[in-house]
UniProtKB/TrEMBL annotation:
Protein's name in the database: Sugar ABC transporter permease
Organism: Cohnella nanjingensis
Residue ranges annotated for the ABC transmembrane type-1 domain, each copy included: 1-106
Recorded topology in the membrane: Multi-pass membrane protein
GO terms classed as biological process: transmembrane transport
GO cellular component: plasma membrane
InterPro entries the UniProt entry points to: MetI-like, MetI-like_sf, UgpAE/MalFG_permease
Record keywords: Cell membrane, Membrane, Transmembrane, Transmembrane helix, Transport
Coiled-coil stretches noted in the UniProt entry, renumbered to this chain: none
Transmembrane segments: 30-49, 85-110
Matches recorded under PANTHER family: BLL4140 PROTEIN (PTHR43227)
Signal peptide (residue range): none
């Protein structure tokens, strides 16, 4: 979908200038898709700390607490099973803050490197 937004005359101009298919991809396609690449990379940074709670929780038991514990299952176990609501909330909030910082850093780097802003 991002490639359809690139003006075909840019490819024609590249061919007239003698650009190979690789040069067309590097100098026409990639710069044309840069805003989409920056947007997807920035939004994906917040998902780094998610490890698939639903998949791990299906096989989760006390026998695998030591090896199968991730942040989400730790929050679940502390909050619902051990009734340590304040500690579970603090861990969940810390995970959200770290995700926000990662998104902010990614957004800042995207602006500094690609000179592109989402908003």
């Amino acid at each position: 979908a991002a490639l359809t937004g690139i003006n075909p005359s840019l490819y024609e101009a590249a061919v007239v200038d003698g650009a190979s298919r690789l040069r067309q991809a590097w100098h026409v396609s990639l710069p044309g898709m840069a805003p989409i690449i920056v947007l997807v990379a920035t939004l994906s940074m917040g998902q780094i700390l998610n490890a698939g709670f639903d998949q791990i929780f299906n096989l989760y038991s006390p026998a695998v607490y030591g090896t199968g514990d991730i942040i989400d299952t730790l929050v679940y176990r502390m909050g619902l099973e051990q009734a340590q609501y304040s500690l579970a909330t603090a861990v969940g909030l810390f995970k959200s803050v770290v995700s926000f910082v990662l998104i902010s850093v990614s957004y800042y780097l995207a602006y500094r490197i690609a000179n592109y802003r989402i908003f």
